[in-house]
């Protein structure tokens, strides 16, 4: 912590010296160049040191909360099946993944990860979850937001299989379904299960930002959370350490999303009727 403060002060002194030299019309000499180097190096070092401190604290706190729940946690450098989520993600140029959590709840295996995506005209974050699914299936079925005729037409071009018409009017108003097997799609998306999906979007307060796919005996769920929102964060590391309990409670509250989805969709039940 003191290293971060010291480097920040050094950076401020360096740029302060640059400002003074500029007022004295001596901003193009070697002294000004050295002052700029000190200022820039100090602030850059402070930023990198703060990032390292944050990651270490996050590994301890978030990792500790996950371990308490019996989950495994990794900040970065992990394997996650991002390619499987392509049917659920808008086109993107770059992706950065962080905060992978894996575990087992009520007979259901899960893993989740937060992703930061960008392209030339947009940036957004998404929470991606993978659940084991006890109801067997062979094909691929995707459930994406029903937007407008242009968006729906683009989805028809990129999704595998054909459009599936279902009888639930609230579900049809919010979602477009595509499947490589029409019969299997109806076998998976029973009337009660469609009701649960609609209820889940309302509980998450995210009517158009939730999509899902059934593939490889897994249920994949993508929740778009905006460009500024972040999950599983620890906050400012310079806040007093004694507030660790509050931070831990906040993390526990966020991790309730995992079990909330299991309960909302009744994933522990093999019938899903």
What is the overall shape?
globular
**Please, what is the average pLDDT?**
76
Share of helix, binned? 40-55%
Q: Which series of helices and strands comes N to C?
A: HHEEEEEHEHEHHEEH
Oligomer: single chain
Q: What structural category do the secondary elements indicate?
A: alpha+beta
Structure description:
It is a single chain. With 273 residues, this protein is an alpha+beta fold. Helices cover 44% and strands 24% of the residues. It has 7 helices and 9 strands. The protein has helices at 2-23, 30-69, 149-158, 169-174, 182-188, 191-203, 244-265, and strands spanning 72-74, 94-105, 108-119, 122-132, 141-145, 162-164, 175-179, 210-215, 218-226. A 9-stranded antiparallel sheet has the order 1-2-3-4-9-8-5-7-6, with helices on both faces. The chain is globular, with a radius of gyration of 24 Å. Residues 1-8, 14-18, 40-53 and 234-242 have low confidence and may be disordered.
Note the main attributes of this structure.
273 residues, alpha+beta, nine-stranded antiparallel beta sheet, 44% helix
List the helices and strands and how they pair.
Blueprint: H1 2-23, H2 30-69, E1 72-74, E2 94-105, E3 108-119, E4 122-132, E5 141-145, H3 149-158, E6 162-164, H4 169-174, E7 175-179, H5 182-188, H6 191-203, E8 210-215, E9 218-226, H7 244-265
Antiparallel strand pairs: 1-2, 2-3, 3-4, 4-9, 5-7, 5-8, 6-7, 8-9
Helix pairs in contact: 1-2, 2-7
